[in-house]
Fold this protein.
Amino acid sequence: MHQMKTDFTDLHLLRIPLPFRLKEVNLYLLIDSSGATLIDTGPHTEAAIKALGEQFESLGISWESIHTVLITHYHSDHCGMAAEIKKRSGATIYMARQDAELLQIFLAHPDRIVGDDDLYVRHGMPGKMVALLRAVTDPLMELIPSFEPDQFFQEDQPIVLEPFVFVPIHTPGHSPGHTCLFEQKTGLFFSGDHVLPEITPNIAAHPESPLEDPMATFLRSLEAIMRLDVAQTFPAHGSSINNLSERVSEIILHHMERKLEVEKILAGGPASTYAITMELFNKNLPLLERWMAFYETLAHIVNLENEGRIKREDGADTILFSLS
Ligand SMILES: [Zn+2]
């Protein structure tokens, strides 16, 4: 628990442990006269529940006093504990409709997280790696006991919880329904995973994603938040960001550079998505991260295709890409 440096003495950062290489997720607790609002929940693990309970206790907050939970997106570290918090507090849970729908699909059909083996093989991934993928993705859904949000975010409907007014800002990209929360009175911006200080969020051209060009959508969502009058940004991982525009510019530049690197690789001849992934990323990434890298590379590829910069050769057994 850390007191934030703002005029609002009732904003608290809670750090919750994660069972991933990314070690922690930040939750934000905003206390008002009738209780408290929690932004994101942490995953449903014993360690996370214990950490949250202990931090509530040191703040003199009870589970029952949580009246509202605002979920930025459907990933386990952000919404996994929603059912548990709902059970203990009866809080109203807000989430984006697009993410609630995608979460329901994955909870009902965890096999659709990995999806069609054939697709990976055609994109050049070794069959052996595809076979191992399910074993690492299956346990992911165990971190999210099923829940249903009580409310869907509506961009034109600020959530008024005096003294706070939260404006949901739809920022699709990292997930189709990703939502940042802009506290209008103070200019505090809760960015979820949309903008992170040290890493860039994974952007995946996953077959279950309703986004046709997730990279283009993400970049548009980045440009959109630059118009907001933000005083300070509180991300879901890492420390707070003082200059949001500067960080957003860095992330946009990173993706422009990545796209140029893909073109540079293809200047050497046609290549598969997996082969390009292996050029762009560290070859020794753990399986789960290599899988995420594969889908992010595909997101760059789809984006370059849509811009007419590269083209696809859709063969019977393999899909290769080359410069236009
Ligand atoms: Zn995430």
